[in-house]
Amino acid sequence: MIYFQRDDESKTVLEAARQIANAARTAPKARGLDNLVIAVADADEFPAIAQTMMRMYEEGRAADFFVRDAHNLMVSQALLLIGTKIKVLGLNCGLCGFETCAKKNEFPGVPCAYNLNDLGIAVGSAVSRAADMRLDNRVMYSIGAAAREMKLLGEDVAVVFGVPLAAASKSPYFDRKAAAK
Description:
This protein is of the alpha+beta class. The chain has helices spanning 5-25, 46-58, 65-74, 101-104, 113-132, 141-149, and strands spanning 36-41, 78-85, 136-137, 157-166.
């Protein structure tokens, strides 16, 4: 049997996305506490996410690059979603802008600096693994914002980034056109 790369492209990228998710999971975390939620979505999920991105823009709740990024998502073959819950680590470090974790907890929408740091390290680990696998990828806040609005990672996930993945002869995430205004 002969397998042509183009015939298996989507399946291969989806399988790779699962490995990339593992790279995000095993990234170092402050105090060893894991508040990350990581998921892989296939192309069946893209239309709903892209529609949410477009709606957020049309309602004036998002910048015009959400439109461009929605189009980028639709030409992808897999999507990695990485988010964090907001949970303090009890260090009273003040990095969040509050003197103590107890004071920060009075404002539950304000992330603990360590939650965001762990998220950033996990995203970096994921895109590094994607690059090692020679997959086109780009970190997109816009996709994460739509996924958060849709609660795809759960009610308690407060910050999400999306990493669309593709195996293309030219990266769809490189020479991106600005959205028409």
